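User: Fold this, then the next.

Assistant: Folding the first:
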Amino acid sequence: MIKILFADDHEMVRIGVSAYLSSQPDMEVVAEADDGTTAVQLALELRPDIILMDLVMKEMDGIEATKRIIAEWPEAKIIIVTSFLDDEKVYPALEAGAASYMLKTSKAEEIAEAIRATYKGQTILEPEVTGKIMNRMRAKQEKHLHDQLTEREMEVLLMLAQGKTNQEIADELFISLKTVKVHVSNILSKLEVQDRTQAVIYAFKHGLVK
């Protein structure tokens, strides 16, 4: 039997989901909690096989409860079951140590299958969550061309975006006109653009200038 602790502050949700899970031949809901503090206490006391954790609860939210459980019991298998898909919930929950992430809009049988899979050591994520994670990973892996610019070159680029001429840049930075031209040449090369206009467009496109 897969022993389950279900933490959710909505009584009707707990009643409905617990009844369905308890009807499964391989599952037993051994305890319920309506707040994060109680969830932590019961998790560490009972050491259930699976913890179903809501995110928004009174006294202590699901993210903090997950952190505290994992800190004391790293092997705990926690499945987030929530209505939230925003970044402020998804990433902190997974970083806190949640093994799987499901939505309350999932069918009861999908929750049951997620429990079985997580119990076996697998990670089950809603497709939307998987998409968010992949996009975040791609964003981290993407190398921006402007990351190659030196601090001075970035300063010159921003001044180009302000419409300043080479001479005006030289005067303001107290450097020679020749040095400004070298900086501009380096900027064009590193940003892989052909002229100053394209460099300025790049700066606005990538949020370097607002």
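Now the next one, as you asked:
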Amino acid sequence: MTKRKGLLISVLLIFSILLFTACGTTKEKGNAEESTDTITIQHSLGETKVDKNPKRVVVFDYGTLDSLDKMNVEIVGLPKANIPSSLEKFNDDKYENVGALKEPDFEKIFELQPDIIFISGRQAESYEEFEKIAPTVYMEVDGADYMGSVIKNAKILGEIFDKEEFVEQELANINDAIQELNQEVVDSEKNALIVLANDGMISAYGEGSRFGIIHREFGFIPVDKGIEVSNHGQSITFEYILEKNPDVVFVVDRAAVTGGSTSAKQIFDNDIIKQTEAYKNGKIVYLNSEIWYVASGGLTGTKTMIEDVQSNF
């Protein structure tokens, strides 16, 4: 009996040790899972694994910077040429200049040792170079589905920086504002033409363009459904505008952002435009070019775009 009892105790002791070890391993694994803050972000250029709440953030997209600023997320570097006035605080010396929108300073970016880099269409071709330095997330804004892009990008940022609830509320506010504007526009049955002025040259943008939110989300009827979808727009003349004679002409002044000798208001002050109904009714609307041309897609910028149209409409 003694031997048998001793054997039983030994077996129980071994079993207890194994059970304790197993429990310890499970707990350690569980703790590891709980502390694993790495997530995978799917985007148009691939997928990127990033650590949640990264501390050293480099941003090459002003729309993304706008949203991060709204979320009170700090960054370490950005391209400082053509920073919109709404983001003027990022001209401060505490933020490093990492090149131009289309000419990244990869050496400077490497020196900053970022935890994450955000880029957009202007840097898409350099995606692989960015990836060599740090996890890089491509924040695309599709003009044909502007709000779809805004929602997707904002939710990506919310997930990365633990701001999901904040993002949901901001998106709800934007949606409410769009619905209100859309109802007013649809009830008016107004048509519109979107024009980009570039230091004396003008081009038109339609429904599927980078400024398509005016038609798709805001509800303005396109005065010309045949405008080609192009990043640079369809080249037009003032005679074309008179021929189409839209109720509203929305003007984005590229020269006001990138530099030029002739403003949009100067070139639209001509006898042909003065014959249009839009001019006669005070509906030549000059949009906030900084937001519409270089900083669209952000939470605050999108609200500005809505207010831009609503206040003039």
